[in-house]
Design a protein that fits this description.
6-stranded mixed β-sheet, alpha/beta, 10 helices, Purple Acid Phosphatase, chain A, domain 2
Length: about 375
Amino acid sequence: MHKKLPSLLALATLAMGLTGTPLQAQTAAPGTDAVLLKFSTVGDSRQDPKEIDPTMLPLSTQDKIWLQNTKAWSRIMREVEAQKSKLLFFNGDMIMGYGLAGPTPGTSVAEVVGSDLMAFYRQYGFWRGMVAPLMESGTYVVPVPGNHEVQSKPMGKKAQPENENAWRANMGDLIIDADRFQKIVGTAASHVNVQNNGALDGLSSDQSQLSYSFDVKDSHFAIINTDPVGKDNTAPVAWLSKDLDDAKARGAKHFFVFGHKPAFSYNFGTEAKPNPGIVGLDKFTEARDAFWNVIERFNATYFCGHEHEFDMAQPRGAAWQVLVGSGGSPWDALPGDVTKHPETDRLYAWATVSILQSGKVEIDAYGFDDKYGKTQQVKHVVLSH
């Protein structure tokens, strides 16, 4: 069971009695270990038009149209902003998507307006509008592709080139706008690699701006597409290994990897009522193990979503998997379900990471419940870098 660990931020939160209000960032006392870079991460804010969590009913007309959990996602962004995170990595499934984001020849205007193509662009546009204030107030948004962005459900839940193209069309200006990045973050993104990095893994479609990487000071950030065309439910292991090797050779000390699907599915259920089963990269265990070998070799931390849950675990006892698919989509655990971690299995939750001057790296996870009560600190971890 996760234990709530005391911290200045958690104690300040309780003392102030915050309800639905952003956490206030704490100012370090003189002589303490200064924060060199702070970033936050979460995923899965899209709404589901059919499988709606009972606590979200009735859906507003707005959310029925734009298929976003506007209330939960807005609050998470306000709190991330208040924590003064310079980067927000969003781990996929920001839209419902799941159609085929390509035009059909010979269609009428009415058919185009009602098409999957229009739905993709409309949902992307609403999500981009929601995150725009973050970009103006000091937090750069880094997008990670999810299955709802790149896969088509009518095509058998398989990634499609049209959907990868739609990703670039709607997210490409964020990946990576060097001038805007420096103005917002206060330091440059260096060694930016947004090229077609799929060749090393034998991928058939263009992976530019889908799997990409960059450095900030002595930290390296790698984003991976966990559903590339032709190899759904896999990570680009060959490219990632080379990418992290190159970063280490130029002096990177901290390695953070972001993907949509977990390497190890989180079993939130019990023996009496197990969860639905394997939903992540562990669908292909040999490929998953090759991926995790890379994560462990570089003592990296893997952040992911897909499962609409929060969980932090060390699957093999070393590297951490941080599951934050808890950004507003209907939880996998239903009200009344008996789960392993009832205190966190139905929280809207995110993680905030602080890289300190000493080299220490801290992860603090926060969340609030379906009644939108007080935000709680639910996990504190110091990484062994």
